[in-house]
Amino acid sequence: MGKSFDIGLERLTGIGVPGIGETQEGGVKPPLQDTSADLKIGHYVDASATKGGQAGMVVPQESTFYLETFGCQMNDHDSEKVAGVLLARGYRQVDGPEAAKVILYNTCSIREKAAQKVFSRLGELRPADDQEGKSFNTEDTEKEHRVHRDGRVLEKNHPSLRKIVNAGGGKIIGVLGCVAQQEGEEIFERAPWVSLVCGSASYRKLPQLIAELEAGNRRVTGLDTDTDETFETEITRRDNPWRAYLTIIEGCDKACSYCVVPFTRGPERSRGSASILEEVRRLAEAGYSEVQLLGQTVNSYADPSARKMRFSELLAAVAEVRGIRRVRFTTSHPRDFGEDIVEAIEAHPTICDHVHLPVQSGSTAVLRAMARTYSREEYLEKIALMKAARRPISITTDMIVGFPGETEKDFEETLTLLDEVQYDSVFAFKYSPRPNTPSLKMPDAIPEEEKGRRLGILMDRQREIQRVRNEKLVGETFEVLVDGKSRRENQWSGHTSSNRVMNFASPERELLGDYVQVKVVSAMPNSLVGEMVGRM
Ligand code: 5AD
Ligand code: SF4
Q1: CA–CA distance, 349 with 474 (Å, rounded to integer)
Q2: I want to staple 75 with a disulfide (CB 3.0 to 4.6 A). Which of 9, 64, 71, 122 is the partner?
């Protein structure tokens, strides 16, 4: 084949890639995110959205919105729903804040640097004549520290917005998501030019909040978390023409000692199985062949309806929907991961052979301090279930280094876990103290420099594991869903069922959205390089 290219590496250095933010347990974007380097994908809007927009709503021409999303796949998908709601009200989505009447940021607060990003953006939007706003830390330098096969995407270039607000005037600026929930009305104090603050647990109120803004209200909030409802809407604007995301459980009840999610996303609420299956059928009819079930702890799904479907039964039922060729799910919590899920994967080839099972640490002492509810040994028992499966299952994970009190020996146990499990991808993070979390007050904080040293060691070790593992795949043939086209001629990219990135050569004119057979000819730590050998 011709000169090989490695989108994985391009992505790692951020070349030609759309922006990306954080991951979050339950919304792990990196291994599952569509980051097609060169591909411009269209927007699919549910027919009902357009109808809703036409039905009786008089929206002035200038009703445009710009929506920027930070964070995990749950946030991405929430943004799809928010966009759907706005489109249904007759708004038009624009690519940049310049042309927008409404500017919305859907935010992430999983780590401190992620939360800072929104204040950095808001600082740029500060009107020149504003005297009230408190000072901002506009540091916007969060580094992505991940060893994974999808490569990594760095910061999107962002225009200076201050000019935009001053020039345009009269813009509505809103903060959505986890930072909104966490900071609440304090955001109005820090940035008086913001008029909407709404956490994800209150999104079902969004249409009403938007109507209040349209009616002239200056400030509106949605900050309840004591809801037992999920944000279901008929009018989701989907960004990817082949893969549809579907939230089946929102919130989290697990209370890991380092994590803000239970505070920002509220308690666990599951969606009824009948409504999930109905949506999957509709998606299949609309041409989606891949669905990804989402939840912070997706496998803690508890069907609220009389059917009381277990998560593994739901997986199987989704896999049987006619037209669906791939079912993914993320993120699983080890406590609720059982043999039944492995059996469902074995029994249904349409359920992808990939499980993201965050471990966080290889040391039982640290796991206990993190309140993860399992020991190293118990976690390894779950891994053993997958390794014993009749079909090989690709396993990926999240890890935190430098948790308070993590000794050199604890860290060493994390490293030996890498060797033992042989992950195909690891998302590793330096521990970041977060407001309200129990670990904030734990003694024996690890200095930043030491956290950085441990992270570097972990990444090097894992990169080598991935290199060796991927090299063993040379000569094998995989089914690939083609979701990217390179600027270089005859070069395409896609994902295998195990979610490996495959870059491959083919002289075909059009392959996007097709399932093809690709033989691996060489391997890198983050991606495979292959040649197309047939169609499915
Ligand atoms: N500091 C560092 N990493 C964190 N994560 C969650 N909270 C924190 C924190 N306070 C990581 C976990 C989780 C992933 C999405 O983010 O590894 O699985
Ligand atoms: Fe995941 Fe624990 Fe945070 Fe829940 S509390 S989202 S299980 S890390």
Answers
A1: 22
A2: 71
